[in-house]
Write a structure and sequence with these properties.
heterodimer; A: about 280 residues; two-stranded antiparallel ribbon; B: alpha/beta; Rossmann fold; globular
Amino acid sequence: MGNILLDMITTSAILFLTSAGLLVVFGVMKIINFAHAAFITVGGYATFVAHEIGLPPILGPVFAFGVGAVLGALAEWVIVRRLYARPLDAILATWGLGLILGQLVVLGFGRGVQFVPPPIQGTVAVLGTEYSLYRMVLILLAIAVGLGFTALINGTRLGLSTRAVIMNEQLAQGLGINSARVRLITFAIGCALAALAGSLLTPLTSVDPLMGLPYLIGAFMLVMVSGGSLPALAVACIVLGGMQAIISTYLGSVLGGLTIAVFAAIALRLRPEGFARA
Amino acid sequence: MTHRLPVTLLAAGAALIAGAAQADDPIKIGVPVGLSGANSVVAPSVVQSAELAVAQINEAGGLLGRPVELVVADDGSGASGAQRAFDSLIFSDQVDALISMQTSAARNAGLPILSRGNVPYIYTSFYEGGSCHPNMFVNAWVPEQQVPPVVDHFQAEYGAETYFLIGSDYSFGRGMLEFTREYIEAAGGEVVGEEYLPMDGTDWAPIISNLRSSEADAVITSTAGGAPNVTLTRQLRDSGVNIPYANLAVDEGTAGDMGDVAAGIYISASYITGIESDENAAFLAAMEEHFGDELSTPNELSVPQYEGILAYAAAVEATGSTESAGIIEALAEVSVDGPRGTIVMDHQRHAPLTMYLGRVVEGGGVELVTEFDAVSPGEQCPDL
């Protein structure tokens, strides 16, 4: 029983980590960043590079966050800022950006699988069972990311500007807030969070050119259900992630893989605008 | 007169060139292979070993006095790409034979085109078994050859009675584990769990939890190659699973690269680089010399490709022609002494093979545990 409970919580934590970056971009900019998967992949490779150049494992995620932020800012500056008035074109453009990033990764590192040694190994006794220590750490990291971003939005001047842009962009501009700068920083942070997720996943997965892709659809569904709010995303991850773990355990992982898509579709049928302001 | 001489010379020259072209007309071997898509990681090593085989044949004077030429085409690792590749190789390049390592989907899609073109085809990839075509031969393993060494060893060495099977949800993964289940049950063991994760799944945690609560004596996995394999192995180790563990889908190179995470894993293969024979040593040295820094490490998918081309060459020499009917008859009889030993595709278009049970050691690399001589492919194509 303990195992299932832990599977539920850790699955939710992984979902939260992999979808937070997408939510940040969607929440502020109202566009879906389909290059999100590619930024997760970039984070994995950044961690691999950090390991190769001899950085200590603890700096791997930091390095990945930085690489994601720089590439994200560059992408916003070159491509995305031209498309704010055209959300459908932004889907195509970010999808294309994802393909380009994926191919650049292939050109740089080849199609093969790369390996990053896990920083933490072994198991820990929790709830009467031996459980993966790293998965337990992921719970704390997911909470840290959630709290960190909440603090940024609610406790800083940038957060204040961001909230103003979310509420009414024209009014915010009228008040002298540089909304273009807010968007640039938001997109960079969203991409950096994706890369951070990719980095944190490396002990559990392989690093390969497609490593981010499996997370994209789940993240997309969760962000839609949550309607763009971080606390709602956390709840959606706990509910749907928990259900995925239960269904995978008792009915098999093939059905488990459908859980999020099916229940997200039902949730959106009941409440098309998401559950953010429920 | 002044004009006629050059014209005559030209005509004579043209005739000479045409005549020469006929005598030197190369024997063409088509290689449809996944240069892009899922097989793109292993394809370079397959093409290299094919190139070595052809270079060695040409250095020794070719076949029937004719040079051999390789025509490589990308099959995209899938059905639609394979149809295009088979079509262009057979009908526009007019190859004399097809020899290649492909995915099962690509192979199946190409077979109808093989019937229309009526060329011999040697399939050099291990696969789930039971694929039959009058023009097709297989020189790699089927489940009947790969699985028994693992189960036999687990029973003898660890006294394992209960087994848990984990795979990726696709035809090869399910096919392998279905056979494994039958073999375990026939051998008196019990399968206490059999679970599959979709191909794009990344979280094995619920399956691993079920494995732990099943308290199985041993675990056998058959995932898609590459990422799913690494992901499952890492998460199994990360969860502290330390019962005997055989991975039916990992190759020697990947297992070695995974390092300590993979330590202790059993693999079952018809080729590992550590085979101690003169043929293997000569092959490895020739590969090294031919490709130098560009060398992709020879492996279980590239070595059968090398031997497949040698088998075709032997069949051409034996029949003295490249005519399909004769070649197909000869392919069932000719034997090749290659890096994997002596191989004859005389068991219903399949070949008995020496199987090696290896174990990944700490720090990477694979040590040979034991070998099983002339393991039969069993009943694959009783109608052929």
